[in-house]
Amino acid sequence: MESCTSFSSCGHSPEHFGGFYLSTPKSGSTGTVDLDAGVAEELTAHLGEVGPVEFDLPDITTGERLTRPVAVLFTSARGKLLTDTYWSELWADWREATGWPKEGTFHSLRHFFATTLMSNGVEPQEVQKALRHANLRITLETYVHWLPKKDRPRGLVGNLLRQAGRQADGRRLEPSTGQDRI
Question: Are 161 and 153 within 8 A, CB to CB?
Answer without folding.
Answer: no
